[in-house]
Amino acid sequence: MELKEIIKGFELFDSGDKVGHIEFSEMGGILKITHTEVREKYSGKGFGRKLVIAAVEHAKKHNFKIRPLCAAAAQILKKEEFAEVLA
After folding, report:
1. Cα–Cα dist 18/81, whole Å
2. Pfam families of this UniProt entry (predicted)?
3. pTM of the prediction?
């Protein structure tokens, strides 16, 4: 797996094949996750979680709190382990 930082997000690749991406915006100390998408052939294998974790690590590194606006990220981030990073 290769994670590539892009402007306002990350892309995830498997052997050069794009698995999916996550998009976010940053403003006023808040990282808003606006879109998370995993290609159908990779769904159900934890790749969406990997993308959300990348966004969480990015937020922690830059001292941001997270507000998940997309349903996929909100579902993953509702777990207690992420409570400290939520806005």
Report:
1. 28
2. Acetyltransf_CG (PF14542)
3. 0.94
